[in-house]
Structures are given as structure tokens and as C-alpha cells.
Design brief:
This protein has 142 residues and is α+β, with helices and mostly antiparallel strands. The chain has one domain (3-140). It contains 7 helices and 4 strands; from the N terminus they run H-E-H-H-E-E-E-H-H-H-H. Strands 1, 2, 3 and 4 form a 4-stranded antiparallel beta sheet that branches. Strand 3 (70-72) and strand 4 (76-82) form a beta hairpin. Helix 1 crosses helix 3 and helix 1 (3-22) crosses helix 6. The protein is globular.
Length: 142
């Protein structure tokens, strides 16, 4: 099993969800806020887990899903924001709609059925398999 891929799904979903909630504001995206406190090694370098999370965010930037102005040491991306591509994909309504949403007003149905909300729910429920599928939906579209 490729545990680093599960970590990537977790980190990418957490970063994208945080930026979606702040959109369109630019924010500092701290690694510690996404994965918790990780102790540096004996040389003061970030842990492997910390570096993996940072690398996931940098990969999202390289692939055009987020923008940022600078790195704050190894701790954060400064002035991070979703790109138009990521915002549109995260705002997209997934179909078919859950039957429990049919009685709700259209605006609430749209919000709850969005890819961003589905990612947040999978993340909060610690549903790694659903998270992987939803992230695949986001990244797989061209």
C-alpha cells in the first residue's frame, strides 16, 4: 500500500478546502494547521511528514491549482489563493444529488452537493477512500 499517496490526498484536500473557505482572500497556509505539530529532527529540519505536506501544496501550485507569493521558511505558503481552475472545479455540483437534499432550497442544495463540501465531509469523517475518489474527480478533469 502506498501510504504517501493517502497522505497526499489528505494534505491536498485539507489545503484546497482551507483555501476554498477563504476564497477570494489570499491567506498564509500553514503546514501545522493542516497536519498538526510535527517535531523537527535532531538537526532542526522539518519531519518527513511535514515535508510531504509542503511538497503536496507545492505540487498543487506547479499544476495550476493554487498560487502563492512566497514560502515562509518551511512553515507555510504566504498569500496563497485558489486559481480559477481550482475554484471552478471545487464549486462544481456532483451528480447525482443525494436524495436527502431534494427538499432543501436550491442554494443550499448546490452548496452541499459541491465538490468542495464533499471533500470537507470526507475529510471530517476521515473517509480516506471517499477522499481519494473525490480528489481524483478534481484532478482528473481536463
Amino acid at each position: 500500500m502506498d501510504l504517501q499517496i493517502d497522505d497526499f490526498h489528505h494534505d491536498a484536500a485539507a489545503g484546497l478546502a482551507r483555501l476554498y473557505q477563504a476564497f477570494p482572500r489570499k491567506v498564509a497556509l500553514y503546514i501545522e494547521d493542516l497536519i498538526g505539530r510535527e517535531e523537527p529532527d535532531e538537526f532542526g529540519l522539518p519531519s518527513t511528514r511535514h515535508q510531504s505536506c509542503l511538497s503536496a501544496l507545492l505540487w498543487l501550485a506547479d499544476e495550476g491549482y493554487i498560487r502563492y507569493d512566497a514560502l515562509i521558511r518551511f512553515e507555510a505558503l504566504d498569500q496563497a489563493v485558489l486559481t480559477e481552475k481550482a475554484f471552478v472545479r471545487l464549486s462544481r455540483v456532483l451528480s447525482p444529488l443525494d436524495s436527502s437534499l431534494t427538499d432543501l432550497p436550491a442554494s443550499i442544495r448546490r452548496s452541499r452537493a459541491s465538490l468542495a463540501n464533499q471533500l470537507r465531509e470526507a475529510f471530517s469523517e476521515r473517509d480516506g477512500e471517499r477522499l481519494a475518489l473525490l480528489l481524483g474527480e478534481l484532478l482528473g478533469q481536463h
